[in-house]
Design brief:
- With 614 residues, the chain is of the alpha+beta class.
- It is built from 14 helices and 28 strands.
- It is globular.
- The termini are far apart.
- Mean pLDDT is 92; it is low at 1-13.
Length: 614
């Protein structure tokens, strides 16, 4: 029963957990971040890029949260139920031990107004030893904390209603309300449990209770889903646990209805506390998603690659000659092209790091490297999964023809600088990859193509890089033509098979990068002081670059260095094996969390290092 009494919400001192002190759950449509204190402080419904319901990670006072924890000073530990995305937070006190099991049932193949549209989030509390008092507080703040809402009762179900979204909470313990929030205190003895289930309701989806027996069935079904999915992995190497956690994380970042893969499930987690480098990553970066396809294909997950190719075919087609080229660098999870950026000035930002942004103005940038990442993934999909269609090949030909015409333009580059366009070497490199992989694909399949023109373009790019991208003074390839600034993105040169990993010019570049940008295995992407990017503040090391560094060392035959660097990088993961985008100078996770780019690069580095070690 839910007891309704009018009163004041129990006081709760808002505070911010570090970004790394979170785990992730999801249903392949959206996700929730669960802190080590048992609080859900990030949740958007019904999809990744929908407005938030709980966002206290961005504003402890106004963001909204779902607290569920032991009331006495408890020590906590958090782990995933083995080989799944079911998260367990344990509470240890002098009187007992309890745990909260957080999960979202997966209905990956469901369509229409079915259980998939419920987006059920289940929080099951168990006392496993002794007795333990718990406290729950459900305080949603709709539309990033900007929309008012009410709570009404429909039998034993509490319905939170705002103008655009309704959520229903069922609980097996009594709760109180003040018309806005719900809260309650309860005690469990050994073997007892309580269940809280939060659903999206409305239209054909009616409120429905979640009894203990149903919660048990949902738990078993969710565990079975994730284990059956992971069973398809072909990875049997030294770092199986970390690789599989990265694969499970990438899977959580996929949007099942379209096959899209988001760069990260959060917005505006700062790259530097107090800085302005706060961006919305809840979209499909063509580059990130293409690299993710490569990583998943490496492990044997062809279904995700097929779904992403379907997303490209159904939702993205070469455009109409916009300044940013035939493709945008990013799209919405439904394929939409318009992602207007705005600031939410009513939110203070994580630990006071404003602004909080939704949308992303970088969508209109010209970043030529995306064509190489995309066509490389198409080439690998055709090679390792199944042949691409004739229509898809026509699209590839159109993109390659465009690259042949436009590869020598200055652009904003892979790091999305807001300081003006340059002739970035990495962009040239990936244009070379785009043409070279298309030539390979045409030759292997006997597909029609303007091969003489393509070869001419490929070779022109090669000569341009070798002649204008090499600094005699630095004895290294550099960030942009005729410059002297180093860039960790160039670690991709041997990985993309542009240059032999033992070529003297490359080994000299690797040594220069090690001296300038590497700090105890951690790699900065570039030096903002030497190459201003149009933004204030510093940033941490970029974790994808650190894993690229491991791969570059591996391919150069420096296996002892590569293995040590890889093992050191693993120590920077959080307690669950998750990574944000960056790592601060004190070893803290920074930026949006978790980051697809980091996890896919971990998979690639582990795979190639394993193979080299034998």
């Amino acid at each position: 029963m839910v007891d309704i009494q009018t009163g004041q919400t129990p006081p709760s001192a808002p505070r911010y957990l570090p970004v790394a002190d979170h785990g992730l759950i999801g249903d392949l449509r959206t996700v929730a971040l669960v802190g080590t204190d048992g609080t859900i402080d990030w949740y958007c419904c019904p999809c990744f890029d929908a407005p938030s319901v709980f966002a206290s990670i961005l504003d402890a006072e106004r963001g909204g949260r779902f607290e569920l924890a032991a009331t006495e000073g408890a020590r906590t530990k958090q782990f995933y139920f083995p080989d799944t995305n079911v998260l367990i937070t344990r509470f240890f006190t002098e009187d007992g031990v309890g745990e909260v099991q957080d999960f979202m049932p997966v209905n990956a193949n469901a369509t229409g107004p079915t259980e998939a549209e419920r987006h059920r989030l289940i929080r099951r509390v168990l006392c496993v030893r002794g007795t333990l008092p718990f406290r729950v507080r459900v305080a949603p703040r709709f539309d990033y904390g900007a929309a008012p809402h009410t709570v009404r009762m429909e039998g034993c179900v509490a319905v939170f209603e705002s103008a655009d979204l309704c959520l229903a909470l069922t609980a097996t313990v009594g709760l109180e309300t003040d018309g806005t929030d719900l809260w309650g205190d309860f005690k469990l003895a050994e073997g007892e449990s309580a269940v809280f289930a939060l659903d999206q309701v409305g239209g054909d989806v009616a409120p429905r209770r979640c009894a203990r027996a149903e919660a048990e069935e949902e738990f078993c079904a969710t565990v079975d889903y994730w284990r059956r999915w992971l069973h398809a992995s072909r990875y049997r190497g030294r770092w199986r646990e970390m690789v599989h956690r990265s694969a499970l994380t990438l899977k959580l970042l996929t949007y099942a209805p379209t096959g899209a893969i988001v760069a990260a499930p959060t917005t505006s987690l700062p790259e530097q506390l107090g800085g302005e480098r706060n961006w919305d990553y809840r979209y499909v970066w063509v580059r990130d998603a293409a690299f993710a396809v490569y990583a998943l294909l490496r492990l044997g997950f062809t279904g995700e690659a097929e779904a992403f190719m379907s997303f490209l075919t159904r939702h993205i087609s070469p455009g109409d000659g916009k300044a940013s080229g035939p493709l945008q660098i990013m799209y919405g999870i439904d394929g939409r092209a318009e992602l207007p950026e705005r600031e939410l000035r009513h939110l203070e930002g994580h630990q006071g790091s404003a602004p909080v942004r939704v949308g992303n103005a970088a969508a209109d940038q010209l970043q030529l490297d995306i064509y190489g990442a995309l066509i490389d993934s198409i080439y690998l999909y055709d090679k390792w999964a199944q042949p691409i269609s004739s229509g898809h090949w026509d699209d590839v030909c159109g993109l390659v023809d465009w690259v042949c015409e436009h590869w020598d333009q200055p652009d904003e580059g892979v790091w999305e600088t807001r300081g003006g366009r340059r002739n970035f070497l990495y962009s040239r490199l990936m244009c070379w990859v785009a043409i070279e992989r298309a030539i390979r694909l045409a030759n292997r399949r006997g597909l029609p193509a303007d091969l003489p023109r393509w070869r001419q373009g490929r070779d022109a790019i090669y000569r341009r890089i070798m002649d204008h991208g090499w600094s005699a003074r630095r004895q290294a390839f550099v960030q942009y033509e005729h410059g002297d600034v180093l860039d960790a993105a160039l670690l991709m040169m041997p990985l993309a098979k542009f240059i032999a990993p033992t070529d003297p010019k490359w080994l000299s570049t690797l040594d220069a990068l090690t001296e300038d940008l590497v700090s105890d295995s951690l790699v900065y992407r570039y030096d903002p002081q030497a190459s201003p990017d149009g933004l204030r503040g510093d940033e941490g090391t970029f974790s994808i670059c650190s894993f690229w560094y491991v791969e570059a060392l591996t391919r150069a035959g420096r296996l002892d260095e590569a293995r040590l660097a890889f093992e050191k990088m693993l120590t920077y993961a959080n307690h669950l094996g998750l990574y944000a985008e960056e790592i601060s100078h004190t070893g803290e996770q920074q930026g949006n969390f978790p980051q697809a780019f980091t996890h896919l690069s971990l998979i690639s580095a582990a795979y190639n290092l394993d193979r080299a070690l034998g």
